[in-house]
From TrEMBL:
Name under which the protein is recorded: Amino acid regulated cytosolic protein
Xref: PANTHER family: ATPASE, ATPASE-RELATED
Pfam families assigned: DUF463
Organism: Nitratireductor aquibiodomus
Region (Disordered): 435-454
Length: 493
């Protein structure tokens, strides 16, 4: 991939990093990026991360916590005053008091959690101040998918967008936009209303791709789906045209106007996002909702693999040395986590983890070559179900028990959001590659691809348990402790 930055960007990054390192001598910090595509559970992960450290949660595999070496954890003012604060208090109230999932990430936000601890090493206790701040940066994965645009000109963007829109999983959704594109002459005089019609048709196609029944993931430009404070600006009012790579727009033409706005989008939206946020990260977790993709079918799974590869290729991965570390950050640990592991029985967790590794194989190989440590995990930052068994004839089936969200349906039954029920979620395939195959009667797929699509329902957050003394316990989870150990455990050793 071509460079995502200019010499000017690199100079700014170096100055920002040097200033940050100087501050870190007095107040050491670790900057953790949390991203994922919509509904992957970014907000829930951060809320559970913070809640379990603030309240001494049950984290047996998080060594600093389980060994009692964390003496105190508390929230502090974040270092970046221009970035919105992650509203932890609102999100934890939604989970615990209202038992509703907090609103999804719509823009970038940040939270500082400071931990006071005792190192496990006598040598480290002499050198370390025993205090470390985690600056948690929450941002939409859709925005990250824009970073590859920095290495593409407008004509290449157009060619790739039209090519992807014609794929079988997208052709019907993109038909209106593609028809409008074919009607328009790129060399006609620039016209604001034509640009707006093209933009609206293109945006509608992207939003349709994102809907649950398709669950497609590779949908740049990301701000078309989550515009934030840029909604309605000229930098967002563009769309691909039917132009070939290498073609150039005539001055004053629709082509020239669209190209100018595309370049403005890269310059004023994408490049600052990379420079000010992504290039400053030390650790990264990428959350994916593999369940939703599997519900939608093989095309959605393949598209998720494409998106995940593009996302992981955008990070500055690897280990820096003492000198280079003064001027630039490198992400030396990346965790790829499939969320909502509580939607299946624990007997299938290893299979879900294998599916995640299969999805991330190419990206993991690339990261490994650059020196970054990568792990994959099946987890639930907040566990909404518990496990049980039911008898069906002579067979005993493993089930999960919880309260499905209102409107969720399975086997013809629609749930009311109040009734707890036991559900047999089915089994994930033993071979991860099978989820990429379409079921069908043809000889090649017969007997290999699943006969029926997998179907998972979404559940309400759980009621928190109380001790005999009436104390409310922390949010239950699946492998949140293992995630924290990988992401930050070495910094608290």
């Amino acid at each position: 991939m071509a460079s995502l930055t200019t010499y000017t960007d690199e100079a700014r990054i170096a100055l920002d990093t040097l200033a940050g390192r100087a501050t870190g001598l007095v107040s050491p910090s670790l900057r953790i990026g949390v991203t994922g595509l919509s509904r992957a559970g970014k907000t829930v992960f951060i809320t559970a991360f913070v809640h379990n450290l603030l309240h001494g949660g049950r984290l047996p595999l998080f060594d600093a916590q389980s060994s009692g070496r964390i003496s105190k954890a508390y929230l502090e003012h974040q270092p970046d005053d221009a970035v919105p604060r992650f509203q932890y208090e609102d999100h934890i109230a939604a989970l615990v008091e209202s038992r509703i999932w907090p609103e999804s990430t719509r823009a970038i936000s940040e939270l500082r959690l400071t931990v006071e601890f005792e190192s496990a090493s006598a040598w480290n206790r002499l050198l370390s101040r025993g205090k470390l701040s985690f600056d948690i940066v929450d941002y939409p994965g859709e925005w990250l998918l824009d970073l590859p645009l920095l290495s593409k000109d407008y004509e290449t963007f157009c060619h790739e967008a039209l090519e992807m829109a014609a794929l079988p999983a997208r052709a019907d959704l993109s038909a209106e936009w593609r028809a409008l594109t074919h009607e328009v002459d790129p060399n006609e005089p620039a016209d604001e209303m034509t640009a707006r019609r093209l933009f609206e048709a293109f945006s509608s196609y992207l939003r349709a791709c994102k809907a649950d029944h398709r669950a497609l993931s590779t949908l740049p430009p990301g701000r078309f789906l989550m515009p934030g404070d840029l909604e309605g600006s000229p930098a967002l009012t563009f769309a691909p045209l039917g132009v070939e790579p290498g073609a150039r727009g005539k001055p004053g033409s629709l082509h020239a106007m669209m190209e100018r706005r595309y370049e403005a989008y890269k310059t004023h939206v994408v490049r600052p996002f990379f420079r000010e946020h992504i290039a400053r990260l030390d650790r990264q977790i990428v959350l994916i909702d593999a369940m939703q993709a599997m519900n939608a079918g093989a095309e959605a799974v393949t598209d998720l693999e494409r998106a995940l590869t593009e996302i992981l290729s955008c990070f500055r991965q690897g280990r820096g040395n003492l000198l280079t570390g003064l001027f630039s950050h490198r992400i030396d640990r990346i965790l790829v986590a499939a969320t909502k592991a509580d939607h299946i029985h624990h007997e299938s967790h290893d299979r879900l983890q294998a599916i995640v590794r299969r999805l991330a194989d190419r990206a993991i190989a690339r990261a490994g070559f650059s020196g970054a440590a990568v792990d994959v995990l099946a987890m639930a930052a907040v566990r909404a179900t518990r496990e049980g068994t039911v008898r069906q004839g002579k067979e005993t089936l493993p089930v999960i028990i919880g309260t499905p969200l209102e409107g969720e349906t399975i086997a013809g039954e629609t749930f009311d959001g109040e009734t707890e029920t036991a559900i047999f979620p089915g089994d994930l395939p033993e071979k991860p590659g099978l989820i990429f195959q379409q079921p069908g009667p043809d000889e090649e797929n017969a007997g290999s691809a699943p006969e029926n699509p997998l179907r998972f329902v979404r559940f309400r957050p759980p009621r928190l348990e109380r001790t005999a003394e009436g104390l409310t316990l922390s949010l239950p989870h699946i492998r949140l402790d293992r995630a924290l150990q990988f992401l930050v455990g070495d910094q608290l050793a």
